[in-house]
Amino acid sequence: MFIGALGCEPLQLARVNLENSTSLDVYRRNGGYEALRKALGMSPDDVIAEVKKSALRGRGGAGFPTGMKWGFVPKDSPKPKYVVCNADESEPGSFKDRYLMERDPHMLIEGMLIAAHALGSKTCYIYTRGEYRYLIEIMDRALVEARNANLVGEKILGTDFACEVHTHTGAGAYICGEETALLNSLEGLRGHPRMKPPFPAVAGLYSCPTVVNNVETLTAVPDIIKMGGEAYQKLGTEKSGGTKLWSVSGHVNRPGVYELPMGYDDMEKFIMEDCQGITKNRKLKAVIPGGSSVYIMPASDILGKDVKMDYEGLVAAGSMVGSGGFIVMDETVDIFESTKNLTEFYKHESCGWCTPCREGTDWLVKVFKRIAKGEGQPEDAQLLLDLCDNIEGKSFCPLGDAAAWPIQSAIKKFPEDFKRHLAPMVEAREAIAAD
Amino acid sequence: MSSESIKVTINGSDYQVEKGARLIDVCRSNGHAVPSFCYYSDLALQASCRTCLVRIEKMPKLQTSCTITCTDGMIVTTESDEIEKARRGMVEFLLANHPLDCPVCDRGGECELQEMVFDWGGLEERFRERKNYAPEKYLSPVVANDPQRCILCKRCTRVCDEWMGEDAIEAGGRGVNTVIGTYGGWLNCSQCGNCIEVCPTGTLLDGTYRHQARPWELEQTITTCTFCSDGCQMSLGSRGGEVMRAVARDRYVNGINGEFLCIKGRFAHPFVNHEERLRTPMIRYRKGGKLIPATWDQALEFAANKLRETADAHGAEAIGVVGSPRITNEANYALLKFANEVVGTSNYTATDRFSLAPFFESLGAGLATHRDIRFAKTIVLVGGEPEELQPLTGKQIRQAVRNGGAKLIVINSRAIRLQQQAAQFIHIRPGAEDAAVLALADERFDELAAKKLGVDASELSTARGTVLDTEGNCIIMFGGELSPAAQSLLAQIPHAASTDKRRFLFHPLPLYNNSVGAHDIGLMGGAHTASSLLGAAGAEIRALYVAGSFLPDHLRGQEEALSKLDLLIVQELFETETTRYADVVLPAASFAETDGTFTNNDGLVQRVRASIPPAHQSKPDWMITAALAQTLGMDFNFQMSASTVFRELAERTTAYNGMRYPLLKDETKPVQAKHAIAPRRDLADEIEALRLSIESLDETAEKIMGTPPVGHELFKPGELTGKVPQFHLLAAGNPKPPDVLISPLYQITIDAGLRRTDEAVAVAGD
Amino acid sequence: MSIISDIIDSTKAIIKGMSITLAQIPKEKWTVQYPDDPVTLQPRYRGQHLLHVDELGREKCVACFLCAAACPSDCIYIIADDDPRPEEERIGVDERYAKIYNIDYGRCIFCGYCVEACPKDAITHGYNFELSVYTRADLLKTKDDLLITKQKQSPNYRVAFSDEDVDSEYKEI
Fold first, then answer.
1. Looking at beta carbons, which residues of chain B come within 8 Å of A394?
2. Which residue of B has its CA nearest to C117?
3. Do A60 and A132 fall into the same domain?
4. Which of B311, B231, B198, B384 lies closest to B542 in space, CA to CA?
């Protein structure tokens, strides 16, 4: 297990390996809350401008420019504004937010406070997934410390800025990682996505302007303020600034959370050298680079292809950054089985709101299970693709797309794994035809 | 409402549409069919069925047309290979886990999913897996539920929330396991059954009609509901002389209520075919004796002779004629004509709870239609409890507040459920409604009224301020608690307070389906009220000819009055307290067996149509009256036709001038009676009288706390569960419910005698 | 014309006619001695209807009214009812069944549309064809007359085997 930075100075992971890293003392000794002090000295517009300059993109998966998102919040709205931290990290393969909150909770609080200052918000919520209950305790402890140190509450750091931070747990639903579903859940409603538009920036929590940001996005904010937007952007590429956390898991010798600058060069080196290669010296078969909902990449697309690890580089290579859940699979993995497993996950987590996702994922799982039992028909591969096509782009929220993409890419990139499972029936049919 | 017009291109044709129009509506109204399940106009958008997908230029992906608001220059494609594939895909998904049990399903034949599959379904089913199973159950004695058939359009949950404000039905579970159900136990609601109505599949079904008939063999007759003054349009489905069900599905009927009906309208029709209906005319030859079945000729002859005897002995004024606010205008008109022309008496009335005569005499503005209520800006509700007594009005108020942003001011002695929607709720002492009206009309009396109402004077001025700040329609509603003087005062408010920007409209809340009609005909203008007529029984009144029955309220305290009469002729559906002393009982036809009109509280004159032939030997009320007149030697010349009666009625009733049945034919375009607007007049006398009566009000009366439970006026504990004998088998693990519904017979008595007996309610004009 | 040529002509005609008659005598006979002998009916013969049951003896009919809707002569009358008992106790295969199922053979034209319409294969045409009765009211057959478990099959018919060419006898003639 490795937690640290490669190719750059650690920013987000600067304090995670320190002893007692959750305490306010350690955080302050290492430059904590300085960014907040600096931000409070700036006007909210300047803070947003700094974030815009940094080319920080949302780390939750969609990669929407954060500064722009903040800019959408209407300044003159008479309604209260909210900052919500999306800590519902449920994407299979992603575990970076957990380490950030577990080891450096104050960084998140500071990031939220800066965001609240920039947006004129007086209330922040940290929405954590139900399974991260123990993190709530850590966060709450940190909040108590911060409140005692006059960092949360009224007159923060002696200024007129007042802000409350609350923690909230979900009940264990993947869909609540979708920002509007998260807001529904936070309001106490059924966790299903809302219609967009209106976007949360205009009508979010309790129909008030709301910004929902991932943990990693918010924890990047203090560093941006500290070093300045441009300097932060320079760490990465022009369009995606700064560093990115990658949660590496699977068949590598050294899994962990890696902080890499955007545009890290290249993926093969990352797997083979930084992560110390594939376990038991087996061959690389496939990588899911951005959490389960992105296209799967076969080894042939990685080895020798000089894949840059940033938003543009991965799109060019036929996949996406997503949430940075980097899953490595060696040659022993049956892609059919892994895809079946993922599909079952999506069926279980579909909220049931819209037809294609609700019925489609159920149908997909049924087909997968039938094939696994050896009752697959030769045309089932085509059926799967057709169902995915009917789900993709037609569902209410991106969960439907997320369920369809892995299957589409798996069938396209690893047809032999599917053929093998469909073989018994194909042979039986041929035998009948031969009779 | 902006009427700015923008250009939208659909499939290559340009259309000018109103700004802000919804794309799916624009497509449909211009003949580009777009299928949908979850879209339901005037409900919250859902966008979950994904069948209304269209392609809009410059937008990524296909878009759901139900969520798109038209913008200028929008270019839309509703027909292409891509869209067809998507729609077929969605229908295939919907059908994947939907059981193919159409032969068993009650919705088969009028099922939206069936129709959708006919249009968009594949020829072959590709879903070869096992379908998910969920057992059938009952959500309440009247709501049967087959979760397997559900396509989760959630119309039911939205209707329950937005129309009824009850939130009794909700989705549970997640993903493919989502089921529509209750929060545990039975549906805790008013059992309106609107969830059944809007369900596009056979998921929610009428438990009382379950597996009785198929829709295509029912004869659908569009008629008006007989239970309250809202006058909902509904379609009675009958088969072989039996009324099987009442629905408001828009494929059969499109009235003022849309697809809305309440528990009474939807489920309380079995009284029509009830076995206790009177079968033949009956005569009591000897006082205290038994009622003996007779032929029509015998009964009419007997009644006519006795009437002649009474008139000869005591004069024509000794005969009283009593109509009913529950029978048709035609029937009431025939009775009035009988009183005036055959008998020549001024002692006629109708058995209503309160008279609207003072209100209509001082009417300062027109009557609001239910559509006006939905789009009103301010609604003032004085007394009454529309969500229980006029459910459609209650629904319109709720939607006006929730969807239209209207301000609702509730002035009531009880915290009725509608006060949850109210911008301001003035909780007053019971019986003090008059004081609130006085204060609304004249600010000089704020202090006095506030003292008597038990509220702060500022509350009254706030309410008045809200009314006077209104731009748009301000609708004033009032219940039966107001005294005649208060009714006049309220009716004159528009003269003082309306401006160019503010229009006042009235919405009286009478209790019966034809209360307004009975007033319009002039039946309420007789020398007596129902109660005083009973008081005079045996003295100056020797004979009564009653259509319908007296209400328990009228009979209370003078139960024996009817026995003092020399002659009592009653035409009724059932044996009631009134028929107990009747000398002649004539079986009358119910609303489902007669042609005619009802006038609702909007002043809309709406048709009632015969769905089945009259049960047994019964006859429509107006026909009985005409036959009795004939026996007495006077030919009404009605020619056995209700339309002839109505033509004569319309000629003689100012508000109905010019109306004919062909004009009233279309239930989608109801015709409003032209009630004369009274000019502004001096109200000093009324104000003074009101002031005096208010000053004598008790200031120590305790306020009634607590919100009355759902359905407390709508239905009373009874035995509808008895209508579903296998009920316990359908309970699906639920405990046996408290009996939530009424037997058909009880429905009538219930309607007659509201159960607000525990408090002193000012019963006006009665 | 002489009388002799008349006699010759008529004798010729008699001989010609009788030769056909006499030639038939040794051939196979088609006449069926009904009701002493059973009639052979084609497999597709449309006789009195049969209401079927499943292997557990439950009525297949779910009272969907499709037969009644399809019937051109309006001779089928059904009253459906709800049977919410557990599956094994039910009368029919589903919770909906026909409480009353009447066919009026005074009106039925044996067109077979009801059989076509049935989604559950619950109604078929049987072979009973002896439907004459003394009173018209008896032409109304109820479920008790129609159910396959209760309908008595007439001994006066046999059904042709499917490979038996029943039609050819008419073709020959």
1. 50, 53, 61-62, 86, 89-90
2. B103
3. yes
4. B311
Residue of A62, A68, A76, A80 whose CA lies nearest to A116: A80
Most distant CA pair in chain C: distance in Å? 94
| Structural domain count of chain A | 3
Is chain C in touch with chain B: ≥3 Cβ pairs within 8 A?
A: yes
Query: Hey, of C65, C76, C85, C87, which one would you mutate to test binding to chain B, going by the most B CBs within 10 A of its CB?
Result: C65
Are residues A153 and A29 part of one domain?
A: yes
Q: What angle do CA A73, A79, A80 make, to 5 degrees?
A: 80
The DSSP line for B445-490 is GHHHHHHHHTS-HHHHHHHHHHHHH--EEEEEEE-TTS-HHHHHHH
* ipTM for the predicted complex: 0.92
Domains of chain B (ranges; CATH) run 5-94 (3.10.20.740), 282-356+515-668 (3.40.50.740), 371-508 (3.40.228.10)
Contact criterion met (CB < 8 Å) for B103 and C66 = yes
Q: Which residues in chain A have Cβ-Cβ distances shorter than 8 Å to B62? A: 393-394
Q: Is the C-alpha dihedral spanning B106, B110, B111, B117 positive or negative?
A: positive
pLDDT at B757 over 50: no
Sequence letter at residue B547: A
A236: in domain = no
Q: Which residues of C92-117 are buried (b: 16+ CB within 10 A; e: fewer)?
A: bbbbbbbeebbbbbeebebeebbbeb
State how far the Cα of B388 lies from the Cα of B510, in Å rounded to an integer. Answer: 12
- DSSP strands (E only) in A253-404: 256-261, 264-265, 284-288, 297-298, 308-309, 325-330
DSSP string for A25-57: HHHHHTTTTHHHHHHHHS-HHHHHHHHHHTT-B
Q: For chain A, what is the largest distance between any 2 Cα atoms, rounded to a whole number of angstroms?
A: 89
Look up the pTM and report it: 0.88
Residues A109 and A221 in one domain: yes
Look up the domain containing A258 and give its range: 243-330
Which of A351, A359, A382, A397 to probe by mutation at the B interface, max B CB count within 10 Å?
A359
Place of tokens 């000018």: B16
Q: How far apart are CA B282 and CA B617, in angstroms?
A: 11
Nearest CA in chain A to B175: A352
Q: What share of chain B has pLDDT > 70, as a percent?
A: 92
Chain C residues in contact with B216 (beta carbon < 8 A): 65, 69
Tokens of A118: 């920039």
Nearest-CB residue to B211 (from C66, C68, C82) = C82
Q: Which CATH architecture has domain C39-159?
A: 2-Layer Sandwich (3.30)
Classify residue A235: in a domain, yes or no. Answer: no
Residue C11's CB is within 10 A of a number of other CB atoms, namely 10
Distance CA B425, CA B418 (A): 9
pLDDT in the model for residue A110? 95
Provide the pLDDT confidence category of residue B756 given band limits of 50, 70 and 90.
very low
Is the residue at A284 inside a domain?
yes
Question: Is residue A234 a part of any domain in this protein?
Answer: no
CB-CB under 8 Å, A363 with B127: yes
Give C169's pLDDT tier (boundaries 50, 70, 90): low
Is the model's pLDDT at B717 over the cut of 60?
Answer: no
